[in-house]
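Much of the work behind modern protein science is quiet bookkeeping, done one molecule at a time. The protein below has been through that process, and both of its lines are reproduced in full.


***
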Amino acid sequence: MSKLKAKGSRGSWFAEVDGERLPCVHEHWARKWPDYNDPGIKPGGRKENEYIDAIKNGTVILTTDDVVSQEPFRFSRTGYVAIYTVEDVTADDSGISFRFVSRTYNLL
């Protein structure tokens, strides 16, 4: 499996890999693998809707992070794990959830 390099910027919910801008998802919310559930991302705001739509495209970057605060949850990204394809994306008042399907690329 090829290894690619991801490049993100502080505060962005996206990173770029090989010229493609992809949404980043936190390993913290993938505790019941292959299911992912982030209760903090709900439709409504422009930033949230853009992020949800990008995840619905079916490709995400899984990241490692340190929890900075829990009320509200805030993370500090510590690394990039891999690019995954995802399915069954839903977003509502309980948050965003989906299922990891396959690992496409490992990341540096």
